């Protein structure tokens, strides 16, 4: 089978460079366009022959680029931080109207998907829950999109009570998240550490495979993983 053709938006960024190398090593996908700020996304996406757009840019642009890619007839994987569930639902409507599909993935790491599943299971087991996320000092947004996603999942299961997030930025860190459940005289902590971008590889490929075959836009990597 021919490899699926992918346009990477934000290709010169940290995650974009990693994704381009990952896809270059994969027989399933071929990168046909590497896009940055200097490109007219609309015209390149229409003309490059890609079936899929992978957006890895900057918080605030994920939904914008997702809409643009769908309007240009491409399926989408949005890994950029900060896309809300409401925005993902709008992308879903747009995709279905065009018989296209995709996925919004706040975190491509399989370990984070499992942390979320475990945290959701424990959501109402303790009176208090707090998220601590720690990232390298070059990360532009705080709190991280992943921490906000975990907080939203927990809040939904705790009757809408907001879940506080503490953010730390420091050299020497990569990407780390703890979910701290507290009760009288005890705590229970779920902890996840990523030491490098290779942690995103298997989830990124799973998200692209999923986006290539579905109709509608899903939210969260678990949609692209085997059922619980
Ligand atoms: N889903 C996940 O698992 C995951 C993991 C890590 C990071 N992220 C998120 O993914 C995004 C990228 O992360 P990163 O670490 O690679 O950031 P980065 O190193 O800052 O790279 C972002 C890239 O996007 C480009 N860009 C920004 N705005 C653009 C626009 N309007 N059109 C085209 N290109 C644009 C930037 O170009 P300039 O250099 O010219 O600004 C840069 O090359 C962030 O939102 C980050 O939070 C998600």
Account of the protein in words:
The protein has 228 residues and is α/β, with parallel strands linked by helices. It has two domains: 4-108 and 198-224, 3-Layer(aba) Sandwich (Rossmann fold); 110-195, 2-Layer Sandwich (Dihydrodipicolinate Reductase, domain 2), CATH 3.30.360. 35% of the residues lie in helices and 26% in strands. It contains seven helices and ten strands. The chain has helices spanning 14-24, 41-47, 62-71, 85-97, 110-122, 145-157, 201-213; strands at 4-9, 29-35, 52-55, 75-78, 101-104, 128-135, 165-169, 175-183, 186-194, 216-219. The strands form two sheets. The chain has a six-stranded parallel β-sheet with strand order 2-1-3-4-5-10, sandwiched between helices. The protein has a four-stranded mixed β-sheet with strand order 7-6-8-9, with helices on one face. Helix 3 (62-71) packs parallel to helix 4 and helix 5 packs parallel to helix 6. NADP nicotinamide-adenine-dinucleotide phosphate (NAP) binds next to helix 1. NADP nicotinamide-adenine-dinucleotide phosphate binds at residues 9-10, 12-16, 35-37, 56-59, 61, 79-81, 105-108, 141, 145, 200.
């Amino acid at each position: 089978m021919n490899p699926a053709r992918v346009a990477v938006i934000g290709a010169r960024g940290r995650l974009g460079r990693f994704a381009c190398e990952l896809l270059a090593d994969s027989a399933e996908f071929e990168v046909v366009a590497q896009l940055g700020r200097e490109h007219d996304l609309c015209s390149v996406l229409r003309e490059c022959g890609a079936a899929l757009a992978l957006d890895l840019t900057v918080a605030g642009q994920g939904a914008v680029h997702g809409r643009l890619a769908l309007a240009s007839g491409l399926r989408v994987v949005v890994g950029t931080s900060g896309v809300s569930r409401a925005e993902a639902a709008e992308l879903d409507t747009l995709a279905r109207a065009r018989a296209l599909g995709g996925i919004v993935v706040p975190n491509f790491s399989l370990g984070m998907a499992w942390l979320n599943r475990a945290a959701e299971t424990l959501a109402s087991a303790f009176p208090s829950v707090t998220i601590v996320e720690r990232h390298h000092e070059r990360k532009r947004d705080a709190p991280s999109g992943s921490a906000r996603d975990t907080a939203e999942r927990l809040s939904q299961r705790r009757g809408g009570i907001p879940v506080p997030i503490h953010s730390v930025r420091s050299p020497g860190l990569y990407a780390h998240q703890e979910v701290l459940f507290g009760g009288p005289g005890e705590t229970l902590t779920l902890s996840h550490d990523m030491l490098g971008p290779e942690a995103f590889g298997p989830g990124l490929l799973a998200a692209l495979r999923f986006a290539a075959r579905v109709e509608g836009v899903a939210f969260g990597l678990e949609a692209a993983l085997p059922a619980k």
